[in-house]
Design a protein that fits this description.
The chain is mostly helical. The chain has helices at 9-14, 28-39, 44-47, 54-69, 87-99, 107-124, 142-146, and strands spanning 41-43, 51-53, 130-131, 136-137.
Length: 171
Amino acid sequence: SFVVPGNDPYSHHQGVATDRPGGVTPGTAASLERTLDRALAIPLFGGVGVPLPGAAGVAVLLNIFAATADPGASNGPFAAPFANLDFAKKALVFEWLDTDPRFENFIIRFVVNALPTLAAFAAFSEVSAFDPVERKTTGRPVGWDLSNYAGPSDGWDEVIGYYRGIDKVEA
């Protein structure tokens, strides 16, 4: 909801919403979680301790920094403190994570920088209507509507045939 606000409860709660679907659509969170889990494990406590799968580690960091940005964030309508922040405080959390010198030589710096891009990619992709078993879309993906994509095509009437009425070419 932070990267691609929509008409969902998370977007409305953060104070930035639209009248159409956004990043909080079926498949988007699962796609992001799968990507982060496959890409890395984040060790807690500065490189020592139990490594968490990537998505869980990112969630812990977002929620710890969210509690710093707003100590009351744990008391909102959602389970995650980050989800309970308003838009400006979510931006502040990303700024802190991006500039915190403790993360300078750790992969988390890359992950924090990549997270908005990965979230936008998932929101604008076909995951909201993709059946991984059948390996095909089962409806119109939300990302297509967000980007005004007309969908796949076998050609357009205006480009069928030859240029300027030429109907044959001689070698």
